[in-house]
UniProtKB/TrEMBL annotation:
Domain Oxidoreductase molybdopterin-binding, first and last residues per copy: 81-220
High-level lineage: Bacteria, Bacillati, Cyanobacteriota, Cyanophyceae, Gomontiellales
Keyword DNA-binding among UniProt keywords: no
Pfam family, one: Oxidored_molyb
Protein name: Sulfite oxidase-like oxidoreductase
Organism this protein belongs to: Chamaesiphon minutus (strain ATCC 27169 / PCC 6605)
Keyword Repeat carried by entry: no
InterPro entries documented for this protein: OxRdtase_Mopterin-bd_dom, OxRdtase_Mopterin-bd_sf
Keywords in alphabetical order: Plasmid
Length: 239
């Protein structure tokens, strides 16, 4: 794998075409509890390939307004403290069952169309806070690396050795981001800089900070469900 500014297998135009909106209408759910039931009942997406999921509308969680953001209420939660990462040396590896594995610098990652979401972060330890995250959709990253039909899960590795595993449908949900901004500012180190997961459809412990590797896979390896999941926490952890 080369360290590159733009995906080396694709011309800039091809990359932009891949990232182009494909005319899919997303359904808007009316409340998040309704979504919980629906996602909870859906076993089907777990058996669908990236191509099939792409054309399937996914329910969107209603977002909060800017005035609801409460920066002071965000508690930090890290099992091992903040790892040291040099942003210039940082690379995100995307590998596994994909057609185009890549290793991308931050400058390349920031060329992926960015978006922002204002959502509630819910930690099972009993706190919740409204946060705004800015970054890019894993959905768009997936369009660049092209998961093979066999891919069903996405594994995330972090610089502090934290691990997570997600079902493919949740990972490529249009509101699931890899974020590099928080509340309109560059993402603070303690909150996962340079890149962390953010998504309103999963509990806090699914939202890995300091993500260094994204692996598309057909199987979750033994012992690889996730740091907390291996200690008994629920794997799907949908909100
Ligand atoms: N790499 C890594 N990611 C992690 C954790 C961690 O310890 N290491 N803790 C998780 C938990 S339990 C929560 S609630 C959120 C907390 O995010 P915050 O510290 O930005 O508030 O990060 C999650 N992501
Ligand atoms: Mo948490």
């Amino acid at each position: 794998m080369n360290q590159i500014e733009l995906p080396n297998h694709l011309t800039r135009r091809q990359a932009i075409q891949l990232l182009g909106i494909s005319g899919i209408g997303y359904l808007l759910g009316s409340c998040s509890s309704e979504l919980t039931t629906k996602i909870g009942e859906l076993s089907e997406p777990l058996n669908q390939s990236f191509g099939e999921l792409l054309v399937r509308p996914q329910l969107l969680i209603p977002e909060f307004s800017k005035s609801a953001i409460d920066p002071k209420a965000l508690l930090l939660n890290s099992y091992e403290g903040t790892p040291e990462i040099d942003p210039d040396e940082y690379r995100l590896t995307i590998d596994g069952e994909v057609k185009f594995p890549m290793e991308l610098k931050l400058t390349a990652l920031k060329q992926i169309p960015s978006t922002s979401i204002i959502m509630q972060h819910v930690c099972v330890e009993g706190w919740a806070v409204i946060v705004q995250w800015g970054g890019f959709r894993i959905r768009d990253l997936a369009k660049m690396v092209q998961p093979k039909d066999s891919a069903r899960y996405v594994l995330f590795q972090s610089a502090d050795k934290y691990t997570e595993s997600w079902d493919l449908a949740s990972a490529i949900h249009p509101q699931t981001l890899l974020a590099y901004q928080m509340n309109g500012q560059p993402l603070p180190d303690d909150n996962g800089a340079p890149l962390r997961l953010a998504s309103p459809i999963k509990l806090g412990y699914k939202l890995s900070k300091w993500v260094t590797k994204v692996t598309f896979t057909s199987q979750i390896p033994k012992g690889g469900k996730g740091y907390w999941e291996e200690q008994g926490y629920e794997w799907f952890a949908g909100i």
